[in-house]
Amino acid sequence: MPIDSRLPNALIKEALLAGTIPEFCGDSLANAEPAYGRGRFDFFLEPACYLEVKGCTLVRDGAALFLDAPTSRGRRHLEDLTATHREGY
């Protein structure tokens, strides 16, 4: 099944702008592709939240499984997200 890797980010951006994700209601989209640490995240929300969007292609028994394709880039994103948490984001 082909997948457009840009689709998850586009859907999340649309949902953030529409305020339809309960966990992020009250936050506003401040920046797409903000630089942080050794790379970039997908979004930065105000007042203080870095957001990385990941899609997956592995499904078992109707459940999407992540990490379906481990990568060093994905590992770096997780390490950087952990660092943002330690910094209070």
CATH topology: Trna Endonuclease, Chain: A, domain 1
Strand order of the largest sheet: 1-4-5
- Written as H for each helix and E for each strand, in order along the chain, the element string is HEEEEEEEH
Largest sheet: 3 strands, antiparallel
Beta-strand percent range: 15-25%
Q: Count helical runs.
A: 2
Mean pLDDT: 87
Tell me the span between the first and last alpha carbons: 36 Å
What gross morphology would you assign? globular
Specify Rg, calculated over alpha carbons: 14 Å
Q: How many discrete structural domains?
A: 1
Structural class: alpha+beta
Q: Are there runs of 5+ residues with pLDDT below 50, and where?
A: none
Percentage of residues assigned to helices:
25-40%
Name of the CATH first level: Alpha Beta
CATH 2nd-level architecture: 3-Layer(aba) Sandwich
Kindly state the number of beta strands: 7
Write up what this structure looks like.
The chain is α+β, with helices and mostly antiparallel strands and 89 residues long. The protein has one domain (7-86): Trna Endonuclease, Chain: A, domain 1, CATH 3.40.1350.60. The chain contains two helices and seven strands; from the N terminus they run H-E-E-E-E-E-E-E-H. It has helices at 7-18, 72-86, and strands at residues 28-32, 35-36, 39-40, 43-46, 49-51, 58-60, 63-65. The strands form three sheets. The protein has a three-stranded antiparallel β-sheet with strand order 1-4-5, with helices on one face. The protein has a two-stranded antiparallel sheet with strand order 2-3. A hairpin with a 2-residue loop joins strand 6 (58-60) and strand 7. The longest helix has 15 residues, at 72-86. The termini are far apart. The mean pLDDT is 87.
